[in-house]
Design brief:
The structure is a single chain. It is built from 9 helices and 16 strands. By secondary structure, it is an alpha+beta fold. The chain folds into 3 domains: 96 residues, Rossmann fold (3-Layer(aba) Sandwich), CATH 3.40.50.20; 63 residues, ATP-grasp fold, A domain (Dna Ligase, domain 1), CATH 3.30.1490.20; 96 residues, ATP-grasp fold, B domain (D-amino Acid Aminotransferase, Chain A, domain 1), CATH 3.30.470. A 5-stranded antiparallel sheet has the order 14-13-12-15-16, sandwiched between helices. It has a 4-stranded parallel sheet with strand order 2-1-6-7, with helices on both faces. Helix 2 packs antiparallel against helix 3. The model has no long low-confidence stretch (mean pLDDT 90).
Length: 305
């Protein structure tokens, strides 16, 4: 089988691990920088080109698309779907999960637990918006932020008003959420593959840091999740329509609360914490699905809410 990985850097841990596992199983792997792909969008013969060469005979594609290039990356992935190449995660599902507000609305519609979330555009609505989420302290998030960047903890209402006014003055999209104090700067990353939680780790923020991202100095350790946390993570992945994702949740007094569903989760932290071959489980899905959908006209049928 010939597998394409959409990745801007083949030296990244996650990309290297996927290559290593796939090649060990006898598959051919090509790594394509999606920003260097270009497309011929036509009705009967859609094509992708890379560095002057036609990209063809691809059986499956694994998208490792960074949040900052979601628009172009998903356009390239859609082109592969038009060519009937099996995508490990579909373009629509990635776009759905990357839109923080849309993903929260979809989860809310299905009754999934999450922090109380507010969204507004008019600065005149700021005081009422703060009240809607229970007042300070509260968390302010840039909708385009990633890896903890653009996330601010406002400990007082005055601080919250100042930050919100500044962001709105810059014409950026923000949302605010209640601060879950009982989580104590920790969250749970559940790795969901093919409808199952295959590993989970507790991420603890560095001293004095409320964000638990490993990129910001947080630590990770294996954790045993509850049945409710497992059900919540699986439901969130299904709603987004993702075959592979990291579901980040907080432990609260009212049960697990979803913070985010990550369509391109890093493998290093979760593999080291769990000792599991996560890359191998991803290849398992491809091997099963490519064979099962070989002659199906619905190989890239959109899933999720």
């Amino acid at each position: 089988m010939k597998i394409a990985i959409l990745s801007r850097n083949k030296k990244l841990y996650s990309t290297r691990r996927i290559i290593e596992v796939a090649e060990a199983r006898g598959h051919e792997v090509v790594v394509l920088d999606h920003l260097k792909c270009y497309m011929n969008v036509t009705s009967k013969n859609p094509t992708i080109h890379y560095k002057g060469e036609l990209v063809n005979d691809i059986d499956a594609v694994i998208p490792r698309i960074g949040a900052s290039v979601t628009f172009y990356g998903t356009a390239v992935l859609r082109q592969f779907e038009m060519m009937r190449v099996y995508p490990l995660n579909e373009s629509v599902a990635i776009s759905r999960s990357r839109d923080k507000l849309r993903s929260m609305q979809l989860l809310s519609r299905k009754g999934i637990g999450m922090p109380v979330t507010g969204f507004a555009r008019n600065p005149d609505d700021i005081p009422d918006l703060i009240k809607e989420v229970g007042g300070a302290p509260l968390v302010i998030k840039l909708l385009e932020g990633t890896q903890g960047i653009g996330v601010v903890l406002a400990e007082t209402e005055k601080a919250a008003e100042s930050v919100l006014q500044a962001f709105m003055g810059l014409s950026v999209n923000i949302m605010i959420q209640e601060f879950i104090a009982e989580s104590k700067g920790a969250d749970i990353r559940c790795l969901v593959i093919d409808g199952k939680v295959v590993a989970a780790m507790k991420r603890q923020g560095a001293e004095g840091e409320f964000r638990s991202n490993l990129h910001r100095g947080g630590s990770a350790q294996l954790v045993k999740i509850t049945a409710e946390e497992r059900r919540t993570a699986i439901a969130a992945a299904k709603i987004m329509g993702l075959n592979v994702c990291g579901v980040d949740l907080l432990r609260s007094s009212r049960g697990p609360l979803i913070m985010e569903v990550n369509s391109s989760p890093g493998l290093e932290g979760i593999e080291r914490a769990s000792g599991k071959d996560i890359a191998g489980l991803m290849i398992d899905v491809i091997e099963k699905q490519v064979l099962a959908t070989k002659d199906s006209p619905n190989r890239t049928k959109t899933k999720g809410g």
